[in-house]
Amino acid sequence: MPLKDAGLLYTLAALTVTFAGFSALLLLIRQGIGARLTALDRLITRTVVGNLFVLTSGALLPALLALYGIPEAWVWKASALIFGLPLLALLLTFPRRRFAASGKPPPPLVLVTLVGLGSLSLVAMIVYVFGNFGHEHDAAVYITTLTVNFFTLAFSFVFALEATLHQPADKTRKTR
If I label 118, which of 3, 51, 129, 148 is the partner at 20 to 30 A Cα–Cα? Predict the structure, then answer.
């Protein structure tokens, strides 16, 4: 049973994979011009690429489940949990991982955007899909959550990249 919204999900999957490659390339280019990667650089890369692959999986999962003839309401419920809970765990543990890598907490704007808005959208999606609100908007809520998390991650990456690129050369060269 094909999903009517599969085209948008496939587009989101393509965007997330493209952005994962782009974000890793930017940091590799930085290293290629002589700057060594710091622990924070590696954390940013792992976080962005890891979260983007969870988003990619979340974009492909509903269509995969629908291939097995699972009723659409259950496709969205299963997808919401299988995609939502791991990403929620990644977002909620980010401040601790960021502090371990740099000795500093995330900037407030990143904390509010990536962790706050991303987590809020995931919790709202899970509550909506499992709540007794009718199922006519399950796909819209799920796809909106994917999109929100994609853009919060992209924003946070650009913010982190800007800060990383403006580090003085002597700080950039200290690593490992």
Answer: 3
